[in-house]
Design brief:
Shape: globular
Helix content: 40-55%
Strand order of the largest sheet: 3-4-5-1-2-6
Number of helices: 13
Oligomer: single chain
Strand content: 5-15%
Distance between the termini: 30 Å
Order of helices and strands: HHHHHHEEHHHHHHEEEHE
Largest sheet: 6 strands, antiparallel
Mean pLDDT: 83
Amino acid sequence: MAENALGTFLRARREATAPAEPGPRRTPGLRRSELAELASISVEYLTRLERGSDRRPSGQVLGALADALRLAPDERVHLHRLAKIADGAVCTQSTPPEREVRPTVRALLDQLELAFVADAQGDLLAWSDGFGELAAAIGLLDAEYPNLARFVFTDPRAHTAFPEWDRVADTHAAALRAAADLADHHAAALAEELSITAGAEFSRRYAAAGVLPSWTGDELWGELRLAYENLALPGTEDQRLVIYLPTQANTPWERSLPRRGTATRFPGAP
């Protein structure tokens, strides 16, 4: 786990939370004193939590901080997990990530037009024919082991593929940070790699990440606006199914999509 992940998350969320009374400030978001008052804790205790000198907040304190920071349900879960790991209540694992995709999930991909399965660090494990055509067209599948975060930050074609590149980059940096902070050694290793290969473009986003990536939303792929939904796959904690749906503005393009193609597997997967 990254050093003081709990404190870093709390500080990032504090700085991203708008104060009740708007106005010019020297620093963004809530002041420590304001968050401490909202959570009914002392400024000194909040300072210790943010600096990592105290890593054992009670459930009551975590709940009060989550309320004060207006955390979404998944962010509240993430906060409690960070506290458990910081306290040593959760054993970290260094086993290789599961790359096998269940046959039933592959069969589901056969019924979808634009969908893929990825793990916590962004490795593409399997995808539908429609997504394969889209990803191949932008160069995402050129790598032996395609990875979304690596493509976004190190492939120059990503800026053309994703016109809203800054937004996409923030999302993938935040996803890696969330996984690494929860003791995913492989996500942490990729983050270290990208800090070298992509430099400040990645590192500053990774350091500032304080919001979990959204499970639903939309992205711009080239000229195509796609709505997406992330679904965690039960029984495989680090795998998720991502489904894209063309928006109404893309209806003519939608009619040209391949229909219910055969799912492509991650190279080398059993």
